[in-house]
Amino acid sequence: MIMQSKNTKYNLLFGMLSQAVSIILGVILPRLFLTNYGSEINGLLSSVTQIYAYIALVEAGIGTASLQALYRTVGKKDRDGTNSILAAINNYYKRTGVIYLLCIIAFAIVYPLLICSDIPRTTIVLVIVFNGLGNVVNFFFQGKYKLLLQAEGKNYIITNLNTVIHVATNVAKIFFVATGFDIVVVQMSAFVVNLLQMAYIDWYIKKQYAWINLAESPDYDSISQSKNVLIHQISGLVFNNTDTIILTFVCGLKTVSVYSMYTLLFGMVSTFLNTVTDSVSFVFGQTYHTNRKQYVHILEIYELYYMSLVAALYTVANFFILPFLSLYTKGITDIEYVNAYLPYLFVGTYLLSSGRKSSNLTINFAEHFKLTQNRSVLEAVINILVSLICVFKFGIYGVLLGTIAALLYRTNDMIIYANKKILHRSPWKTYRRWLVNLALFIAVTVLSKLVFSHIVLDTYPRIILWAAITCVIVIPLFFAVASLFDRETYRYAKELFAPYWKKVKMKLTGRADA
Predict the structure, then answer these.
(1) Phi and psi for 135 in degrees, rounded to 5?
(2) C-alpha to C-alpha distance for 11 and 279, rounded to whole angstroms
């Protein structure tokens, strides 16, 4: 538990640092693309990124299935078992790398023929190629080792590396954009910098994991559910990417650019929340296989306060996104970005998606991929059908309605399935937490509009200051209300964290005495 606490602390600390850096760079770069290349190039980059998410399906669920298997062997300190799984992953990923490379070539040939755009076809082809080559390198050299580090709770190693590479990549991009280089040079520079990851991970693994032996007999049975995981990945991709694909071919790249701006800003909140989950998921995964009773207790704590954090952050984001976007897109006249109704639809999708996280984790740890794959297929079908029906009449609103319709079904299904089929209890606790957070979300949103109606948010410093103040008030409020309505789980949390708070107090007291 000491090692887990240390890794959790490092994962969270460095994850937050990485997010801070990503947010700063993530805000600067799209603005530069918009002002230097226009909405069409920005839409192209977003569209290509989303299509690559679909091409990533050639991985066929190996990563997720392998991670669950590694949780089991790592938790039991079974190095032979870990080596066998890594050997199987290595073989699968080499084959996947070849298939992925062929998909890049096909994508680069077909995509320019299907879209209507003023961008030169050569530019589109080269943007596609340089966007995809990094993943080929990942499949051949890095993928298996990243999974091992995740299973051991050492996400912070990957996070720190990604932060350094992310900074270097974006600095290179900013330099080339600001100095007037073509978008192709910008994308190529990012690929070249990303090659440094391969060298570092290879060095780190050889130094810290000399016991790894990829010549071990591959344990394909441990990751045999990868094909079932693939169905779940398709469902996740439908949620994350179908909107962009449909908008690309129905409404055009400029509308995709508008959509991408909202997902960029709301996505920052989502990425922050994922960092929190990723920091502790290795503890959950290992505990599920070694101590089921303890797993249920920590899951209760996670669900209660994670759902409150989700609701609180999206409450704040919902209020400040339009003032921020108004400043961010000032001077961009080729399409209107500020829309009073879009934030509510985006918040709806992110709340439904993030609010089911605890149930999704439980299904993954239990490895019920095959048993729930038909449900994922139905989610994908609902999303595609409703989006296609609505997009022609409602445009960007239509695809968001399709996503919300699919999430309403699947989120409820996950909550009921995880509680009844795996944890063998009523789902009422989860629903009660949903209702409490939803009621508080509505109340705070209405109150915020009254409070901020007299405050002018016309500069970045003002928006950041008031957003920070609002977070300081709103997050503790959501936590306090959650604790009030769930005293039993609050007591669990208090008991669990009591030793850590005691250590903190002792350190502070020691420093004060000194």
Answers:
(1) -70, -30
(2) 5
Residue 150 has pLDDT above 70, yes or no: yes
pLDDT in tens, 268-294: 888 788 878 877 777 787 788 778 888
Report the alpha-carbon distance of residue 181 to residue 12 in Å, rounded: 37
Q: Which two tokens stand for residue 269?
A: 């909140």
3-state DSSP assignment of residue 334: coil
* pTM assigned to the model: 0.70
Residue 370, judged by CB atoms within 10 A of its CB (0-12, 13-18, 19+), counts as middle
pLDDT value of position 414 = 93
Give phi and psi for 277, each to the nearest 5. -65, -45
CA separation, residue 240 to residues 67, 179, 378, 380, 406 (Å): 22, 33, 16, 11, 12
Q: b/e map of 78-113 (b: 16 or more CB within 10 Å)?
A: eeebbbbbbbbbbebbeebbeebbebbeebbeebbe
Contact present, 291 and 32 (Cβ < 8 Å)? no
> How many angstroms separate the CA atoms of 118 and 457, rounded?
36
- Contact partners, residue 101, CB within 8 Å, separation at least 6: 136
- Nearest to 463, CA basis, from 319, 333, 336: 319
DSSP structure class, residue 216: S
**Sequence-distant (≥ 6) Cβ neighbours of residue 35 within 8 angstroms:** 331, 332
Q: 3-class DSSP state for residue 70?
A: helix
CA distance linking residue 407 with residue 140, whole number of Å:
35
Contact between 28 and 174 under an 8 Å Cβ cutoff? The reply is yes
Could you report the per-residue pLDDT of 60-113, keeping only the tens digit for each? Answer: 567 777 777 787 787 777 888 888 888 888 888 888 888 888 888 888 888 888
CA–CA distance from 80 to each of 90, 214, 218, 413 (Å)? 15, 10, 11, 38
CB burial of residue 212 (10 Å; 0-12, 13-18, 19+): middle
Other beta carbons within 10 angstroms of residue 179's beta carbon come to 8
- Locate all alpha helices (DSSP H) within 152-252, ordered by sequence: 155-178, 183-208, 226-250
**Backbone phi and psi for residue 340, each to the nearest 5 degrees, phi listed first:** -65, -25
